[in-house]
Design goal:
By secondary structure, the protein is mainly alpha-helical. The chain has one domain. The chain contains eleven helices and no strands. The radius of gyration is 17 Å and the shape is globular.
Length: about 210
């Protein structure tokens, strides 16, 4: 029982369970009556919400897409802020961040299926490495406007975060960049099908 009374353990469990909440699926089902897990890319992320709901209700699709991004980002942010409030260590904060992203990508509520992790990754990065994350956000916005390919823009923005954080931060206050790289690896791994389509020139644009 002492295991479950340990503060760090409770935060780790909370991070994974909160990260697992499939907000995109919930919003699309509740407000548009569609199951995004069986349509489009079958992802629970904002891009698939936008693409699927747009077929029947373009105005609602944009609102639900924005709401999905915000809520998915907040999943990681909220638990991290709670951790900061309780004064947990930097190492614990980074473990929380990794588990929140894992929860989104491999949700316990969806049989370990999930989204691509971009918004949740953004939510944890903005708390732990804010300046590199803002740089990455600018890169993402510019690329999205120019390329109009959501996956490629997200990955380029993520790459900008990692590169800038590597130069601006010395070990993320924990003596290692591994947790930051691990989050990026998870997101890139979940994007392998997108990367293949990008290479083949088959990735769809978001118009």
């Amino acid at each position: 029982m002492d295991f479950f009374s340990n503060t760090n353990v409770l935060f780790f469990i909370a991070a994974y369970l909160v990260g697992s909440i499939p907000f995109g699926s919930i919003l699309a089902k509740t407000f548009a009556g569609v199951d995004i897990k069986t349509q489009g890319s079958k992802s629970i992320g904002a891009t698939n919400v936008l693409r699927v709901v747009k077929e029947t209700n373009p105005k609602l699709a944009k609102k639900l897409g924005i709401a999905t991004v915000l809520l998915d980002a907040l999943k990681g942010t909220v638990v991290l802020l709670a951790g900061l409030y309780y004064g947990v260590s930097d190492s614990t904060l980074w473990a929380i961040a990794v588990l929140a992203v894992l929860g989104h990508c491999y949700s316990v509520y969806l049989g370990l299926e999930g989204g691509k992790g971009v918004a949740t990754g953004l939510g944890v990065y903005i708390v732990l490495i804010p300046i590199p994350t803002l740089i990455g956000a600018v890169v993402w916005i510019v690329c999205a406007k120019v390329l109009k390919i959501s996956s490629l823009s997200s990955l380029l923005g993520l790459l900008a975060v990692i590169v800038s954080a590597t130069f601006l931060n010395d070990g993320l206050n924990i003596g290692s960049n591994v947790p930051m790289y691990l989050i990026a690896f998870i997101i890139f791994y979940k994007h392998i099908p997108n990367i293949v389509r990008i290479i083949k020139g088959e990735e769809k644009k978001v118009i």
